[in-house]
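note to self: dont lose this again. the chain is below, predicted strucutre after it. 98 aa total, dont forget to put it in the shared folder this time
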Amino acid sequence: MASAEVWIRRRWLAYVRSNRLELSISRCELATRAGVDPALITLIERDGHIPRRANVRALGKVFGDVAKTELAAGYLPAAEEKRESDRLWRGCLAVVAK
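---
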């Protein structure tokens, strides 16, 4: 695993664990509130597993900040992702137009 990926996973693991502990809830309670399988929370806190974006967003809703949670998991927030996609698309069009 590349060192940047390891860093993101460690940051994500710490982010989820610290937010859960700040809420004073168990892994199972976090999973229930987010509507995900409790095993997913264990994978995140044990291995730094980064789940699908929908599950990251569900956790973000529990934590009270979806955009920050997406960033912690290594995803661009939706608005940023659209801007980046638009920028890349314009760049591709410019190359094709030459």
